[in-house]
Design goal:
Strand content: under 5%
Radius of gyration: 17 Å
Structural class: mainly alpha
Number of strands: 0
Number of helices: 8
Distance between the termini: 54 Å
Shape: globular
Order of helices and strands: HHHHHHHH
Length: 162
């Protein structure tokens, strides 16, 4: 397999993580599509630099999140709340109304976190280990634990007020 085929296969296998990052850091379909393209472009540009010191998905998360943060800072957009994507809406329709309200409230509170906190909580909710999060974000494992604890407290505090 050549480089292009390897890259295409990697994107297809891990495109879900790209979509998760775009949904977290954008608030419109057009912005998501633009960010998706920018992330894929940045992954392609840096594909030769991937040396397999980490898992491919870890490296892709790091590139995707750094691209998203850079894209937001560059465009100087304010991050507002976003609507829950259609797939999540379909899932919540099957659950009772109170669960839907709880999910929306949690989503709204996550949207109010700063860029770093959003990234950390996304990875945490994805089930990534503290080691993986540290590698993706570029902070120590201990710092990840501390930040997750603080984010949980912040969210719990905000959610209990509502």
């Amino acid at each position: 397999m050549n480089k292009k085929e390897h890259f295409t296969k990697a994107i297809k296998e891990h495109e879900g993580l790209i979509y998760k990052v775009t949904f977290l850091y954008t608030d419109s379909l057009q912005d998501r599509e633009d960010l998706y393209q920018e992330i894929v472009f940045q992954l392609w540009k840096s594909y030769d630099s991937f040396k397999e010191f980490s898992k491919l998905s870890t490296w892709m998360y790091r590139v995707a999140m750094n691209t998203a943060i850079y894209h937001l800072k560059k465009s100087q957009r304010n991050i507002g709340t976003t609507s829950i994507d259609p797939m999540v809406e379909r899932i919540t329709e099957q659950q009772d109304h109170s669960e839907e309200e709880k999910l929306q409230l949690l989503h709204d509170q996550i949207q109010q976190l700063n860029l770093l906190e959003k990234g950390i909580i996304l990875l945490f909710l994805e089930g990534k280990s503290h080691e993986e999060i540290a590698e993706i974000i570029g902070i120590t494992k201990t710092n990840v634990g501390t930040k997750i604890s603080r984010i949980k407290k912040k969210l719990k505090s905000r959610l209990t007020k509502n």
